[in-house]
Design a protein that fits this description.
The protein is mainly α. It has 5 helices and no strands. Bound molecules: protoporphyrin IX containing FE (HEM).
């Protein structure tokens, strides 16, 4: 089961990136046009997929071979090893910050404020979340054991 959930966690990254790009595009193009329920739905889709990925990540962090397990096995030495530090600290903190920004975007999307102001706030939140996620993903060119598409290649 762990492998299956890891595959899902891994593949959902592509959906999050796609949804972020769609939301960024929608908040930048015709930014002063009224913010519709259709826009709100795209924001909701992003929120749901992010929170699902986060839940799967928490499960992997506490029950998988990496993450918290590294602390339990190696203690403070984890911080001196770049790979262990990434899994034990950097991945989880970066992704939680990004998820918080996306959650804040949900409340901004619901606010009754002028469309231009709303879209400006939203595009900033999405863009910062995108940068943090891109920096916190374990890309195959940094980690030999992480494929581009787990379960597919
Ligand atoms: C929400 C955005 C997140 C994205 C886009 C994301 C993305 C990824 C990706 C692409 C992998 C590599 C999977 C593979 O080996 O094929 C991974 C692994 C992992 N993620 Fe995340 N992650 C996110 C959030 C989190 C969070 C919040 C945690 C911890 C609470 C977490 C914990 C882990 C762990 C422990 C692994 C390694 C699992 C293993 O190899 O056994 N992730 N994540």
């Amino acid at each position: 089961m762990y492998e299956g959930l890891l595959g899902l966690h891994s593949l959902l990254r592509w959906l999050i990136l796609l949804l972020l790009l769609i939301n960024i595009f929608r908040s930048l193009v015709e930014a002063d046009a009224p913010y519709t329920d259709y826009d709100k739905k795209w924001n909701l889709r992003l929120l749901i997929v992010t929170h699902l990925t986060l839940l799967l990540g928490l499960y992997q962090y506490f029950f998988g071979p990496k993450g918290f397990t590294y602390f339990l096995q190696f203690g403070a030495a984890v911080m001196k090893d770049a790979v262990m530090r990434f899994w034990a600290v950097e991945h989880i903190s970066g992704m939680i910050i990004a998820a918080i920004l996306i959650t804040i975007s949900r409340s901004v999307a619901k606010k009754d404020i002028p469309a231009l102001k709303k879209n400006k706030k939203l595009s900033t939140l999405y863009f910062v979340a995108l940068l943090i996620i891109l920096a916190s993903i374990p890309w195959p060119f940094r980690f030999e054991d992480v494929p581009w598409f787990r379960g597919i290649n």
